[in-house]
Amino acid sequence: MGLVIIYLAINQLGLRVAMKPFFAITGAMLYYMAFVFAGKGIAELQEARIVPLTIIEGAPRLPVFGIYPTVESLVMQGALLALAIVAAAWALRPKPSRGSAESNLLRAK
Fold it and tell me: In terms of residue numbers, what domain contains 33?
């Protein structure tokens, strides 16, 4: 519903939305949702006894964030977190300047 409102606002009111920040925010929301869904999905599979249950004593239980104190769910969420860090590092890496790439090509000839 929120995307429909944004779409209508952009088309009807002529609003200009900066695409890079817009997609950065929606991308972060998608990573968050994947993190929560992974934790809750593993918890549901453990409840159905499809996935083994290995409880970590003293670990927090935060259902709002999909965090449950089991090895299986935390490993899956750790993998997602690692992928998010790699994606952020890739997106924020320094880009070579266009002039230096052209000069490298000229030197190679």
Answer: 27-93
